[in-house]
């Protein structure tokens, strides 16, 4: 295929190239069914998730998955993430990145072909298109037909359905960021926040335009991912490949009967081109437009079965196997291709990060203390010669219930402390109790005083312990400044 | 060079005809929609220039059909914030400052407001951390010239220190013992020794013994027989380790010789009641705030009031 005919692309290349409409033909087969399954699963997850409820008691929202930007909380079933725990999200993103490496090195552009939202919604829009306009030939006829009442009606119908789907898509997005039933009610009554309407509008329009009109243009011109993927693939990555050594020279069934042996398996029926959602001809070899959705494999397999030839003229084949096959050597078993050092290494990294995240999740404390020493002034000398330091203490109660905690000093044995808001120097002690609101940060001003003649700079720690459970307590190391004495 | 255009076989695309060390460039056409997107951005930019002030002139960037300006935006934000704070200010105006500790939420709002006002009006003398400097009291400690409870602080801030034209101001004046010839330089030296003994900075000596009787005759009326000071006169406690102007011999000698006369503006001429109340709450919260007014001994002789070293609003 290296000797591609220059005529296969636009020979009269101008400065700008008009998009050629693609009307993919309906097809059935293994991969089409896989695509259906993935589409149903991904769309269900997307639309249904915000509506799942999850009981967290009276002090926390009951939405299973909620990104509460206003209160800076992220809820996901039993897990609640605070802003300072954002590294869990960062870890998930790293896992997603490495997961893409893994998938790409093993099965090529499978993400593009099956799971990418652009692919899933384009696929959905193309199904709608076929339902309204008819299959490929009817759609092309309608496209070429002059504008008239029938065509306008069909177009309006198609665009309306697209727009409805788009609105559903944009609408579903906002439910992840607020209580879904409440927001739905407010949204329909026109009392939701302006940002909700703007988000829905923008996502509706992008879905409508990208899914209905831009389609493969997004993949080819706008998306950086296909270009990056090239760097992750090697000669052992699965690729949708036309076995040209088996198919060429192509010729019709009649030609093949006329000249047995001289004509390859490809009967040039063009079914692979007809079903391609990005409008390419896979027989030209690997190309940027191919999202490896494998619909051409289904189409070709169907035809091969009809003409009584073995399946797999177009198939998932690695580069390495392609050259081995051409030279008549035995190919590598699929399992050996999938489980090779590179994919195993990616998997190990991916799994390692996942395990580390799970471990961190299991070990995180839900009660946290941090304190900041006042810098201006660092210390204050009192009338009686004692020295006072001040701190801003933050107690994070990350559980959805109110708790009473005790904060105790460790070290600096002569020092005593009291709370600026409620305590007094007369009542200074080595520990204090604080009532913490549920799922909130309690900020306290703490004074620590140590008597005259207590020496120089001292180190001490504040230890917090919930009164109602024996969960590991948290500790914050601090310094007591005394100046030169 | 540009004549060497050829069709690149693997891609089927024409090259631009240039070649650099064997590297050629494909003349891949841009998608048509990209061009339309570009035109759309141009249209947007023109529209933007029409509705927003964009073109800079000598008089700023006037115009814009929406009459938008960042100053208006700031104004709106400020007004919105003020409206938000109105109920808090009303509550503060209606609450006697001595009753504030009973309303923790209002108290914390007052402290926050006071902290902001402090940064505007007070830091020039008292410093951003309210630690003061020579002649300007540290407001963090527990040494107060005029008293450290909420009501006293509020009065001190409102009426100021030594503002003769302001009737209610806090006023006292330490005589310039040396300069006015009340004490001879040697006597000043002796009193200095005695004061340093009071502050436990020196051992008793013959000088301090002489100074002791001079102190009783001249200083005790305001600073008290034991040197612990008198708040009604703003006379500082001489026995603690805290000095407003300094505790070394030279400084004390200078203080006794020339006296000190610290001042603070009467803030009720400049600020509203609520701001002063918030400032008092903030200063009180810094750590040295006192619970209730200390018992006030009747001043022996107000006209002879003498407050040496320290002066200013409240802290020592």
Automatic annotation (TrEMBL), chain A:
Q: Which organism is it from?
A: Sphingobium fluviale
What domain of life does the native source organism fall in? Answer: Bacteria
Transmembrane ranges, per UniProt, are 34-52, 86-107, 156-176, 196-214, 344-362
* Domain 4Fe-4S ferredoxin-type, chain residue ranges per copy: 258-285
User: Which SUPFAM superfamilies does this one have?
Assistant: 4Fe-4S ferredoxins
What the entry lists under InterPro entries is as follows: 4Fe4S_Fe-S-bd, 4Fe4S_Fe_S_CS, Cyt_c_oxidase_cbb3_FixG, Electron_Trans/Redox, FixG_C, Helical_ferredxn, Ig-like_fold
> What is the taxonomic lineage of the source species?
Bacteria, Pseudomonadati, Pseudomonadota, Alphaproteobacteria, Sphingomonadales
Protein name stated in the entry: Cytochrome c oxidase accessory protein CcoG
Q: Name one GO cellular component term.
A: plasma membrane
Q: Which GO terms describe its molecular function?
A: 4 iron, 4 sulfur cluster binding; metal ion binding
Q: Which UniProt keywords apply?
A: 4Fe-4S, Electron transport, Iron, Iron-sulfur, Membrane, Metal-binding, Transmembrane, Transmembrane helix, Transport
From TrEMBL, chain B:
Asked if Membrane is a keyword of the record, the answer is yes
For binding heme c 1, which residues are annotated in this chain's numbering? 122, 125-126, 264
Note accompanying the cofactor annotation: Binds 2 heme C groups per subunit.
Q: Which Pfam families match?
A: Cytochrome_CBB3, FixP_N
The record ties this protein, via PROSITE patterns, to: CYTC
Locate the Cytochrome c domain: which residues? 109-199, 206-287
List the record's Gene Ontology CC terms alphabetically.
plasma membrane
From the UniProt record, give one GO term of the biological process aspect.
Answer: oxidative phosphorylation
Q: Which UniProt keywords apply?
A: Cell inner membrane, Cell membrane, Electron transport, Heme, Hydrogen ion transport, Ion transport, Iron, Membrane, Metal-binding, Oxidoreductase, Repeat, Respiratory chain, Transmembrane, Transmembrane helix, Transport
Ranges in a coiled coil: none
In alphabetical order, the GO MF annotations are: electron transfer activity; heme binding; metal ion binding; oxidoreductase activity
As for what it does, the entry says: C-type cytochrome. Part of the cbb3-type cytochrome c oxidase complex.
Similarity comment text for this entry: Belongs to the CcoP / FixP family.
State how it assembles: Component of the cbb3-type cytochrome c oxidase.
UniProt-recorded name of the protein: Cbb3-type cytochrome c oxidase subunit
